[in-house]
């Protein structure tokens, strides 16, 4: 048996000992984070799956893995099909699967610290139809089996200076207090890690690639607050940053503090707060106001300092990418490179800026067929040599104190086929359609998403992920609530109007299973667009990433004149911005890449 088969068997034994017929294992933590610390990687430990989104259900006689379209190929490569069924989200849900597969009168366990109350209600209803019950467990059974489970990070908190944040933490908390009074609430629970980081102008290193610290907060309507975090993480600089209006308490005291809010009207986010938080508030006698955390939107609309910081981060990151692409083009044809070699070299180019804090996510370094998995993760076991005739996809980003970046480029190794050029150009056409969109205030990302797909739809093709996601300001590389996606696509969700100041990615793609993947990704800022006789407020996108788009993969015959004009203007601006940060040899190479399209 494989290690994961042994772990599955051990979990089944433990569940039986606890009188449970099954258990649900999501990939998240007690803050409902997308990216989690090593201590919370329970799904990877149990199944071997290395993706960043998924869930599993374990029953006595069968088990199922739930992933979306980004991981269709990856999950089958990493998870043992003899142990697990593969279910695709959103076509199949955990609640629906349990309704059809759980035994009659089943008791299915769940950890209330890693599920939302909405999920609990939906799944409980599905089980009730078969006489089943969803049972909260006091301790996650995987933790008892995971002998070498990492401990949560003990790294110290860091201050995000006001000149980079653009506002003081006291000003932000005063705005939250105003919001609470307007909603007739006494307190707000902040449980999302990036919300806590933004509200208190703090950063951390507790989650790989995301500069946040493991903490909760309660903000009161008078502007005072309690920050719940491990005491050893708080130095004198943090106490000075927080001031007298913020009380620091041990993170372990958070649940009891919730229980002490009897008679208080407490705002809590049903999407970002786990069921255990709601349960503790209910048990303590608080009145609940289930509403979106007000930090979510405030954080998404970047202020002038954050926008300026993002531009500076993009400039240095773009220059590092240009150096990398030149190196790759010159080195890859020799046949000596592997996917992991490229990851290491790209890191070096970014590190040479002298101010890199971290990558913003694990670099997707995918050659040939690996590129057909949108979120492929290279490992020593999967590490492939880069060969002539392949397309190489590199999706990466950097974390800098002044901004977060995310960019994808595709490079041919040798001569691309006519099909590769056709597909790449159609993806480019969709990218340009989004980049040049002008739309009225109130438009949602779901409406823009279709712009990216039309050139592919016209020949019967598509891609199985959203077109764009929000970006944080030295925070999470995936930030809501803004998205360019249909609600049913991975990365989709509630239909959120786009607003000036939001940052988003623009990343349409095409993926041919077993052969190659294509994705062109830049970041964009939503801006107001003035017209002399406008009858409505109009918005547009302003591209902020400037790295050449590989001309050997473009079929100029497929481009319209406006598309050619956009591409030539984009490349001229790329040469202007990046060129001034490059040596003469690299600038000459960039000038060739940025010449007007033939």
What can you see in these coordinates?
The chain is of the alpha+beta class and 598 residues long. It is built from 19 helices and 28 strands. A 6-stranded mixed beta sheet has the order 4-3-2-1-5-6. It has a 6-stranded mixed beta sheet with strand order 12-11-10-8-13-14. A 4-stranded antiparallel beta sheet has the order 21-28-27-24. A hairpin with a 3-residue loop joins strand 2 (55-59) and strand 3. Helix 4 (94-101) packs parallel to helix 5 (117-128) and helix 18 (561-579) packs antiparallel against helix 19 (584-593). 50% of the residues are buried. The mean pLDDT is 96.
Shape descriptor reads globular
Q: Major sheet, described briefly?
A: 6 strands, mixed
| SS element count, helices | 19
Q: What fraction strand? A: 15-25%
Mean pLDDT: 96
The helix content, as a percent range, equals 25-40%
How far is it from the N-terminal to the C-terminal residue, by CA? 58 Å
Give the strand order of the largest sheet, numbering strands 1, 2, ... along the chain: 4-3-2-1-5-6
| Rg over C-alpha atoms, rounded to the nearest angstrom | 24 Å
Given as residue ranges, the uncertain stretches (5+ residues, pLDDT < 50) are: none
């Amino acid at each position: 048996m494989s290690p994961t088969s042994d772990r599955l068997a051990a979990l089944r034994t433990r569940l039986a000992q606890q009188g449970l017929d099954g258990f649900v294992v999501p990939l998240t933590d007690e803050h409902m984070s997308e990216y989690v610390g090593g201590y919370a990687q329970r799904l990877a430990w149990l199944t071997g799956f290395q993706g960043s989104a998924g869930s599993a259900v374990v029953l006595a006689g069968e088990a199922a893995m739930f992933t979306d379209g980004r991981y269709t190929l990856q999950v089958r490569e990493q998870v043992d099909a003899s142990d697990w069924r593969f279910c695709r989200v959103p076509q199949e849900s955990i609640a629906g699967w349990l309704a059809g597969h759980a035994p009659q009168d089943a008791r299915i366990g769940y950890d209330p610290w890693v599920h939302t109350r909405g999920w609990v209600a939906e799944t409980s209803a599905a089980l009730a139809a078969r006489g089943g019950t969803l049972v909260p467990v006091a301790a996650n059974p995987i933790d008892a089996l995971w002998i070498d489970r990492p401990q949560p990070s003990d790294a110290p908190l860091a201050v995000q200076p006001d000149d980079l944040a653009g506002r003081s933490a006291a000003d932000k908390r005063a705005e939250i207090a105003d919001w609470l009074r307007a909603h007739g609430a006494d307190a707000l629970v902040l449980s999302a890690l990036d919300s806590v980081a933004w509200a208190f102008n703090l950063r951390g290193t507790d989650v790989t690639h995301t500069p946040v610290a493991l903490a909760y907060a309660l903000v009161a309507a008078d502007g005072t607050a309690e920050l719940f975090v491990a005491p050893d993480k708080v130095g004198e600089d943090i106490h000075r940053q927080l001031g007298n209006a913020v009380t620091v308490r041990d993170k372990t005291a958070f649940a009891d503090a919730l229980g002490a809010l009897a008679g208080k009207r407490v705002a809590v986010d049903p999407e970002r707060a786990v069921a255990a938080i709601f349960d503790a508030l209910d048990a303590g006698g608080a009145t609940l106001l289930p509403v979106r955390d007000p930090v979510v939107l405030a954080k998404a609309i970047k202020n002038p300092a954050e926008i300026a910081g993002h531009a500076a981060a993009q400039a240095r990151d773009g220059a590092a990418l240009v150096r990398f692409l030149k190196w790759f083009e010159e080195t890859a044809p020799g046949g000596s490179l592997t996917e992991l070699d490229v990851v290491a070299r790209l890191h070096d180019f970014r590190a040479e800026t002298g101010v890199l804090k971290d990558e913003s996510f694990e670099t997707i370094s995918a050659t040939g067929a690996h590129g057909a998995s949108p979120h492929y993760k290279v490992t020593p076991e999967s590490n492939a040599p880069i060969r002539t005739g392949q397309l190489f996809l590199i999706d990466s980003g950097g974390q800098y104190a002044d901004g977060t970046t995310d960019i994808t480029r595709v490079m041919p190794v040798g001569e691309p086929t006519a099909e590769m050029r056709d597909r790449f150009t159609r993806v480019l056409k969709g990218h340009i359609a989004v980049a040049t969109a002008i739309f009225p205030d109130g438009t949602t990302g779901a409406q823009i998403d279709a712009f990216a797909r039309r050139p592919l739809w016209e020949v019967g093709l598509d891609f199985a992920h959203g077109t764009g996601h929000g970006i944080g300001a030295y925070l999470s590389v995936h930030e809501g609530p803004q998205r360019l996606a249909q609600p049913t696509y991975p990365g989709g969700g509630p239909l959120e109007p786009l607003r000036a100041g939001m940052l988003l990615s623009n990343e349409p793609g095409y993926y041919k299973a077993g052969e190659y993947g294509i994705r062109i990704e830049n970041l964009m800022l939503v801006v107001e667009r003035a017209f002399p006789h406008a009858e409505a407020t109009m918005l547009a996108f302003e591209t902020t990433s400037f790295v050449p788009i590989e001309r050997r993969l473009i079929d100029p015959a497929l481009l319209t004149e406006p598309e050619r004009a956009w591409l030539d203007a984009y490349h001229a601006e790329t040469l202007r911005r990046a060129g001034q940060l490059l040596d003469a040899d690299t600038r000459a190479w960039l000038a060739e890449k940025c010449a007007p399209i033939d």
